[in-house]
Amino acid sequence: MQIKNIKDVVVTRKIIFVRLDLNVPMNNQKVINHQKILDALPTIRYLAKQGAKIILASHLGRPQGSQQNLSMKPIYDAMQTLSDIKIHFVDQVIGDDVPKAIKNAQYGEAVMIENLRFAKEEEDNVPHFSQYLASLANIYVNEAFACSHRFHASITGITHYLPSFIGLDFDREYSIIQHNFKPDKGKTIAIIGGNKLHTKAETIQGLMPMTRYIAIGGGLAAPLLQIKNHHIVNGCSVKDLQVAQNIIDSANTYDCQLVLPQDAQSMDGKIYNLADNHDPTIQMADIGPNTIRDIQTRINDCTMAICNGPLGIYEKGFTEGTYEILKHIGKLTKTKKLTSLAGGGDMVACLQNSRQDKEFTLVSKAGGAFLELMIHKTIPGIEAIKTSQNHFVDY
User: Fold this and answer.
1) Complete DSSP assignment for 227-241
2) Which of 186, 195, 189, 202 is nearest to 222 (CA)?
3) Which one of 98, 149, 282, 392 is CB 3.0 to 4.6 Å from 369, fit for a cystine?
4) Residues 140, 217 share a domain
5) Does residue 238 sit in the same domain as residue 316?
6) Domain annotation covers residue 1
7) Quick one: 206 and 121 in the same domain?
8) Domain identity same for 334 and 301
9) Do 205 and 145 reside in the same domain of the chain?
10) Interval 229-282: pLDDT, tens
């Protein structure tokens, strides 16, 4: 079924609970990247213009109870500065001040509540907490695509109790993926980076049935190299080596070629051939020039590229390998030879810093949700919205 967005329902003089993804980068209680806030504003402006009263809710970080350093207040301050809509802040998730602030706000205004994860019931998806959130509003809107692979109260639980819709940015990302993600097994490459192999194993194996190649870089490659090429790598755990063997076995089952680094850049900037290196103390900081060319050649054989995670130690400035691959993909996308889909916070930063974010078919802030949607064709947040729309048929 087609999923409805906020423009498919009358919101005038309604109270709208909007679940946002405002889990933004912070430094000394200041927002240092405003993109997620900017992406949320079209939905908020639309609802305000239609005369709705808006509840804004998000999580920030992984708090253990209430933590002042993870308060939504700095994000509220940033949003108030960027927006032309009057926004109120209430420093509670649960409490008398929340309904009071909503009641006192005017239609066309918004109220931001405190960090949803200050309430343990949010991540535990406790029904009474979902019911409480629903009791504050008339309609629910999910504008948090990046969080929609989670079974959390504000993502799936609340949809049992309110007519539910997706926001404008959610609709944009979902529509682009639905329209463009039609992989041809023989013409699709996935390029996956990151630190710990066991955290990406399910993703890598999930992509195998639909990809010809999976190029793997960063710390993910180390245990695979040790199993496949007998290259001894310092710090590979028994767990990661077991995961690596499972991935290699799965690749053989699905006739998917794993593209692993041939050469690498060390922390001191030197390039070395992995086949010749037997020093386990050398850490791979980035992929080398031969590996870059190898991946680019395989990309040339494909019509679709999926990117998630940097191929080097991005946070320490080892970006050359990732940037060269992204520029190559961007060039092919611009000439209509390739459909390119990229997701995840680090990948978005790499694309922006390499000035390729405008060249890709889709750049998604979501990491886990982006990949799960492609692998499983759906995610919990979308299924919850669809179920709600089937139930609340009058909306």
Assistant:
1) HHT----TT--HHHH
2) 195
3) 149
4) no
5) yes
6) no
7) no
8) yes
9) no
10) 656 565 678 888 999 999 999 999 999 999 999 999 988 888 988 877 666 667
Q: Tell me the longest C-alpha to C-alpha distance in the chain.
A: 71
Same domain, 279 and 185: yes
Residue type, 174: Y
pLDDT at 10: 96
The answer as to whether 371 is a domain residue is no
Question: Distance between CA 126 and CA 99 in Å, rounded?
Answer: 20
Residue 57 in any domain: the answer is yes
Same domain, 292 and 228: yes
What span, in angstroms and rounded, lies between the C-alpha atoms of 329 and 359?
A: 8
Give me the mean pLDDT over the 118-146 stretch. Answer: 97
Q: Which domain holds residue 343?
A: 181-364
Split into its structural domains, the chain has a count of 2
Strand partners, 188: 304
Question: Domain with 106 in it: what CATH number?
Answer: 3.40.50.1260
Residue 369 maps to a domain: no
In this predicted model, what pLDDT tens digit does every residue of 306-335 receive, in sequence order?
Answer: 999 999 998 889 999 999 999 999 999 999
Q: Are strands 139-143 and 164-166 parallel, antiparallel or unpaired?
A: parallel
Amino acid 85 reads I
In angstroms, the CA 69 to CA 262 distance is 43
Q: Which of 46-50, 140-144, 367-371 has the lowest average pLDDT?
A: 367-371
Q: Tell me which long-range contacts 346-352 makes (C-beta under 8 A, separation of at least 24).
A: 346/309, 346/310, 346/314, 347/307, 347/308, 347/309, 347/310, 348/35, 349/314, 350/310, 350/314, 350/319, 350/322, 350/323, 350/326, 351/326
Strands (E), 139-226: 139-143, 164-166, 188-192, 213-216
